[in-house]
Design goal:
six-stranded antiparallel beta sheet; 257 residues
Length: 257
C-alpha cells in the first residue's frame, strides 16, 4: 500500500517557530468544531507529536487553543472557533498550500470556470479527506446558498464518501488491484461522481509526492455541462494535467500541497 505524505506544513527542522505554530493552529482549525486528539493534529500539521504538543501548549498559554476533557483533547478557544457565524455554518479551511500549488489550482479554475479543490488524507482514526485549499471563482454565492451539511461534507468527509476520497483510496492501494470501483479508478487514472454540492459532479485525480500519496485535486463541475462528452473530456484532461503539474512541484522541490 502506498503511504500518504505529510505535506501540509513544514517538517520539524525546516521553517521558523512561527511557521510551525501556524501549522499547528491551522491543523486545529481545519479539523473543525469540537475537540481533537494530539495524534490527529500532529498528523495534519506534519510534525512529530512531541513538537506538536509543545506548540499546542504555547497556543493554550496564548489563549488561542484550550484543552477539554480528562483526556487532554484540544479545541480552538471559545470565540476563536469560526468567528461569529460559528453556530450557523462551517467555515472554509484556511489556506494550507504553497504558492506554486495554489497557482496550479487557480489556473485549473480559470481554464474550466468551475470550482477547484485540493484534498489531503487524514488516516489517524476513521480515514477522512480534508480540504486544504479551494478556488471558487464566480461560484461563491452557490456555496453560500448550500446547506450546512453539504458545506461540512465539502470541507471534510470520509474517504469513501465521494470521488475525491475514492481517488485517494485508490492511490493508497486499498481494495483489489482490478475490478470494482477502486480498480476502475486506478485503470482510468481519475474518479468521477456526485459532489457534496447539489447539481455538481466531482472529477478527482490523486496527487503524489514521489512514491507517497499527497492528496487529490478535484474539479466540482456543473452536472449539466458534464452531460456533454466534449466538455466532460476537457474537464477530465484539465484535472489530469493539473494533478501532474502539482505532483511535479511536490516531487522536485519537496513543496507542500
Amino acid at each position: 500500500m502506498a503511504q500518504p505524505a505529510a505535506v501540509m506544513s513544514p517538517p520539524e527542522g525546516n521553517g521558523s517557530a512561527v511557521a510551525r505554530t501556524i501549522a499547528v493552529l491551522r491543523a486545529v482549525r481545519v479539523l473543525g468544531p469540537g475537540t481533537h486528539p494530539l495524534a490527529d493534529i500532529a498528523t495534519l500539521a506534519g510534525l512529530p507529536r512531541a513538537t506538536t504538543h509543545r506548540y499546542l501548549r504555547a497556543l493554550v498559554d496564548a489563549g488561542e487553543v484550550e484543552t477539554r476533557g480528562c483526556r487532554g483533547r484540544y479545541a480552538l478557544s471559545a470565540g476563536h472557533e469560526f468567528g461569529p457565524a460559528a453556530t450557523a455554518r462551517p467555515a472554509p479551511p484556511m489556506g494550507q498550500t504553497s504558492p506554486a500549488i495554489r497557482a496550479e489550482l487557480v489556473a485549473l479554475q480559470a481554464r474550466t470556470g468551475q470550482i477547484a479543490m485540493i484534498y489531503v488524507p487524514l488516516l489517524v482514526g476513521p480515514p477522512v479527506r480534508i480540504c486544504a485549499e479551494h478556488v471558487l471563482g464566480a461560484h461563491g454565492s452557490e456555496l453560500a446558498a448550500a446547506s450546512r451539511e453539504s458545506v461540512q461534507r465539502l470541507w471534510r468527509a470520509p474517504l469513501e464518501a465521494d470521488a475525491s476520497g475514492l481517488a485517494i483510496m485508490a492511490a493508497l492501494g486499498d481494495g483489489p488491484r482490478t475490478g470494482g470501483a477502486l480498480g476502475r479508478i486506478r485503470e482510468d487514472g481519475f474518479a468521477v461522481g456526485p459532489s457534496p454540492l447539489e447539481n455538481r459532479d466531482a472529477i478527482a485525480v490523486a496527487v503524489w509526492k514521489g512514491p507517497a500519496v499527497a492528496g487529490a485535486v478535484a474539479l466540482l463541475a456543473s452536472r449539466n455541462q458534464m452531460r456533454g462528452t466534449a466538455t466532460r473530456n476537457r474537464y477530465i484532461h484539465s484535472v489530469l494535467d493539473c494533478a501532474a503539474a502539482m505532483s511535479g512541484h511536490l516531487t522536485r522541490r519537496g513543496t507542500r500541497p
